[in-house]
Every structure is written in C-alpha cells, then in structure tokens.
Amino acid sequence: MEAVKSYRIPVEAPKDLIEEYFKVKQRALDAIFSHVKISKKAHLNLKAEDRKKLRDELLREWKYSKHYVDSAINSVIGLVKSWITLYNRGKAESKPEITKRTVYIKSTLFSFRNGILKISIEPNKRYLEVDLTKYPWIHEDFDRIGGSILTERELIVTVKKSVEPKAEKWASFDVNLTNVTSSINGEIKRYDLKELYHIHRTYETKRQRIQKLSKIKPLTSRRLLEKYSGREENRAKDFMHKLTTQIARELKEKNCGAIMERLKSVKDKILNHSKKMNRKLSKWNARTFQFMLEYKLKWLNLPVKYVNPKNSSKTCPVCSGSMASYLGRIMKCEKCGLAMDRDVVAVLNLQMRGEGFPQRALDEIIEREGLSRNENNNSLCIPT
Ligand SMILES: [Zn+2]
Fold this sequence. Notes:
Layout: E1 2-10, H1 15-33, E2 36-38, E3 42-44, H2 48-59, H3 67-88, E4 103-105, E5 110-113, E6 116-122, E7 126-131, E8 144-145, E9 148-150, E10 154-162, E11 169-175, E12 179-184, E13 187-192, H4 194-213, H5 218-254, E14 256-261, H6 273-299, E15 304-307, E16 323-327, E17 330-333, E18 339-341, H7 342-355, H8 359-369, E19 372-374, E20 379-381
Parallel strand pairs: 11-14, 14-15
Antiparallel strand pairs: 1-10, 2-3, 4-9, 5-6, 6-7, 8-10, 9-10, 11-12, 12-13, 16-17, 17-18, 19-20
Helix pairs in contact: 1-3, 4-5, 5-6
Bound molecules: zinc ion (ZN).
C-alpha cells in the first residue's frame, strides 16, 4: 500500500511560466470543449488524432519543457470530464472555466538528488531549484516524490512511501457539528469544534450576503465569493489539520488504528434554513476529518476501517436494545435502562462494529451504572 503526503514550500515561481501555462490551458479548454457533444446527455468525443493535433498546435509557440503542454491538456480533459458529470446531473453552470493559476509538475519534469529538487522550466537551460534540506519539517522518511503543484508563491510537493498498516488496538470517532467524540481503546475523549463552527458560520453568513448581491453585480459578487471562500476554507482546513495531526500522534503512541463511519451521500431533504446549513457543515467536518486523519494514519503505518453507522446512536451498546431521546443529548435504553450521551453511544457502537467491544469501556459502564456482569455469557445483568 502506498501512503501519500504533501508539503507546501514557499518558492518564487517563474511568473512567465505560470502565465503562459494559464493561457495554454485556456486555449486547450476552448479546443477540447468544442469536442463535447450534447444529445440527450453530454459526452466528450476527443479522438487520439484530435489530441495530437491540439498538442502540436500548442507546442508551436512553446519554449518551455514539452511536458507542461501534456499536463495542461490532461488537466483540462479532467476538468471537462467533471463538468460533463455535473452537466448530466443537471448541476453544471454554463461552461467550465480555468480560474487558478497553478501548474501541475509531473514527475518527468524534475530530478531529486541530495535533497535538491530540480524542476525543468526550459529544456536544458532553465531550472527551478528547491532545497528541501532547508525545511526541517519535511522528514526524509519518504521513498519517492510524486507530482507537484506550482503556484505563484508556493510549491506543493507530494511525497510517497510504501506502508503495511497494522495496529494492536482500535479507536473510533464520531464527528458532528461542534465536537469529535472518540473512544480510544475504550477511553472516551472529546475534541471541541466550537472554534471551527464559528469559522464556518462567519463564512456561510458572508456567503449568503454576497449571493444576494449576485443579481445586481454578478462579477463583483463572484470575486468576493472566491476571496472569502478561499480565506475561510483555509482557516477551517488549518484547524482540522492541527486537530488530525494531534490525534494521529496520540494514536501512534497507543498503536491504535481508527474506526470511522462509512459516509454516504444523502440527498438533502427539505429542511429549514439553519438545519440545512448545519447539516452541510456537519458533513464538511466529517469528510474533512476522515480524509485528513486517514492519510496521516496511513503515513504512520496505522490502519483505518469504515463501518456501517446505521442506528449507531440509537442502539444500546450493552444490550442492543433500542434507545430513545431522554434528556438533551442523553439517550436511554428502553430495554436495560442504560443512559448515555448519544455521541458516546455512537463511538462505542462504531468501535464494536469494527473490532468488538473494548473491555475498558465495558468496565467503565459497569462501574458507573452499577451493573454486574454475568460471567457465564458475558452479558450484563441489571440490578433490581
Ligand atoms: Zn440496553
């Protein structure tokens, strides 16, 4: 199995390359988009000879390394294909657009020796050299460097290594709007997300205000929207990065793998506005948390497992009876009477579904609830 990680390194990128690459992508987009055929559904009808013709055309006035043109064509094809998917679902806007001035650098465009990444700009003539040894946070524990992304101010380097994740113990996680609840080998721990919630809300409110403006001033509102989305998303992602890095370290110390809920794309029901917004944010939290934690754990050679979360906060972790809302977020089992916070119920169920009941959690429940264990069948008896 291969683990992947990326680093942002500040660089001064060759502005001319960034600009020319941007233009070449726009030209490629015009050409490739003209091959999108729309009958009932949209599809891309780009033959190998069309592609070759386009490549030759774009290379005519291209002084930089040829691979850039190939990567530009590939990235535009990707963009057009995802537009087609959206279009066929009835969700596409008028036409795809190139908005970001980023250059994709394939592994064929650089060499890596003695910690120095040498990226070809113009063949045998001009290079961008990045000394990775200057950055102590880039550990040398990688096998190879993959494709990278160059922007005006930074290089996003992707590093890879082979791993064989395994763990002795397990931790489970339940992510919602304002906290992450975990059961780390049966020990319950919570991580506060209120700061993140605040970031999200500020961003959503601003966005709504700008959207109202969009009918009067479409261009201004789009620019504002891009600016704010980028900024707030960076802050939110930054928060999640810190949290998942911290959790990944904790799990490494305890040699714990992670069990998380398998998310599915639920079609949004018609909800009132604030409910809908909270659901969207909650979903963002869960997806971002899972994505970040998974790749960080993989890098540390720890496994991740996804389990079906159906009824995970409504099933009694002790007797499997069904639980109902009792007081605030407390759930109570209709069969055995166990009362417990719904997030804790959820993580215990996730952990059980992934790896069996953690002994530690069981002991804690027994002690707290005054239950006694039936030694013969390991089930719990309710004191009368
Ligand atoms: Zn029960």
